[in-house]
Structure formats: C-alpha cells, structure tokens
Amino acid sequence: MKVKKIDIHIHTTLKKSIPRVDGENFADAGEVVKMYEQLGVEKGVQLPDIGPDCAYGIMTNEDAIALSEAYPDVFFWFCNIDPRWGKNSPDADLSYFINYYKERGTKGVGEITSNLYFDDPLVENLFYHCEKCDMPVIFHIGLKGGDYGLIDEVGLKRLEMSLKKFPKLKFPGHSQKFWAEISGDCTEEIRCGYPIGPVCQGGRVVELMRAYPNLYGDLSALSGENAVMRDPEFGWSFLEEFQDRLFFGTDICDPGRHPNLSFYLDYAVETGRISQGCYEKICRENALALLYR
C-alpha cells in the first residue's frame, strides 16, 4: 500500500533569482506543491543555499523560515551554517548560530556544501557544535576546487574519521561522490557521475553503514536513486538491510526535473521487492523520527 512521502532534501526559493548557466533555477513554492502532488509527497525539508561554493542566488535561513511560515503544511526546514561563520576560526562558537535557529524551528543543519576537507579544523568545529546541539548534518561530498561540497578522496577515509570522532552526530550522506561508493569498483574517473551496471562487493558506503550507526543515506537526486536502481537486486537488498537509516528525497533544483525514486519505491513495494515496513520507513517514518526527535 502506497503512503505519502516526506522529502528529506528540497531546494526552493521565495523569489526567482539569477538562473544557473545551464538555465535551471530553483522551483518556487507553488511549483514545488504541484510537483509534490505528482510525486505523492506530503511535505519536504528545505535546505537553504547560503554559500558561494554552490550558489548563484542565495537562499538564506531567514528565507527558509519565511517559506515554512507561509506554507506550514508543505515545508520543514534545516538551517545552514558555514564552518567559517563567526570569526573564521576553529574555536568559533557555532552553537550560538545553531541554537538561534533551533529556537525558531529548524530540524537540522545542511546541506553543507563548503569546499573544505572533512577533517579541516573549521569543519570539525561545525561537527562538534552540531553534535553538541543534537542537530543532524546533511553533507555533500565534492572535489578540491572547481566543485562544491566537503572534500574526500576515493575510499571516504576522511568521512570515516568524522564518523569515529563524532559518534553521536547523525550524518545523512548525499551526492555523486558519496553514492558512487556503494560499489567496490568506484574509481576517481567514475565517482563524479552516475555509474551503471552491477554493484560490486566491497563498496565503502555499505562497509561504513555497517560499521557506523551514525551514518545515514539521503537517497535524493539522481545520485541516490541511481545507487539503488542501477542494480535492482542489490538495490532492494540494500533498502531492506538499511531500512532504518535511509531517507526518501528529491533534491528538486528546477521545476523541469522529475525524479523517479518515488515511483520506483511504489513499484518495489507493490511487486513485493521490498517489504511494506521497509517502504514506510524509507518513505516517511525515518524522516518523521528525525524531525520530531
């Protein structure tokens, strides 16, 4: 039986701003509502776009508050904290910012897109304060320079160090460089795209999720849906194994994009590829538990 989904990862905007070079632009709230009706989504988590590493037009935390107040039945929101805020120092009191937004209703921090290493002292300071304030962190993994997202190499060793160092911090992982590592044959050449074909044993995402209960999976965007759809038999098994730590998401960045994961999950439960319990957890229950903890 199908259920209404909670979208862990959505970008929207109060007003249209300068489009990206490829012509895409964030969907406004009205466009998101129409897409959610088509996708069977009840409500989504706005992730503000605050920094220069990823943005053309800036989406502030205050914009996210305004949208969630104007559309309370459509949006939750995360605040976004740049590790360089305060005084661009690893001893900056980032709890000051986090608690300010926490009192105003934020449910987490992200999407972190700063192009700094996972183990940069500035980033570790952000993780420390997020853990201290009990705020999950959605992160994007990027390359060094000419890209956005926290930097890590093939093998995700820097992410693993963060998982060890901050065991009480929930880390929902996201992006091509994260999800390409679901397969043991991930290389530098393919990690920036959407690998096809069977998933090989030894994928670091699988190993890390088995070893670290604080690592979660944000299935949004083509990267997330590709990870579980490229090899269906593996994908259904992966969904079942980690059903308590996976989140449905869309990462809608433009009204012209139509993600397929919603329909794929519906198909999987309707044909018995995944259990009803697994389906409901991934589609909504895990997100609600995170948001209403």
Describe the structure.
By secondary structure, the chain is of the alpha/beta class. The chain has a single domain (5-291), classed as Alpha-Beta Barrel (TIM Barrel). 37% of the residues lie in helices and 14% in strands. It is built from 11 helices and 11 strands. The strands form 3 sheets. Strands 6, 7, 8, 9, 10 and 11 form a 6-stranded parallel β-sheet that branches. The chain has a 3-stranded parallel β-sheet with strand order 1-4-5. Helix 4 links the parallel strand 6 (109-112) and strand 7. 47% of the residues are buried. The model has no long low-confidence stretch (mean pLDDT 94).
Q: Summed up, what is this model?
A:
The protein is α/β, with parallel strands linked by helices and 293 residues long. The protein has eleven helices and eleven strands. Strands 6, 7, 8, 9, 10 and 11 form a six-stranded parallel sheet that branches. Strands 1-4-5 form a three-stranded parallel sheet. Strands 2-3 form a two-stranded parallel ribbon.
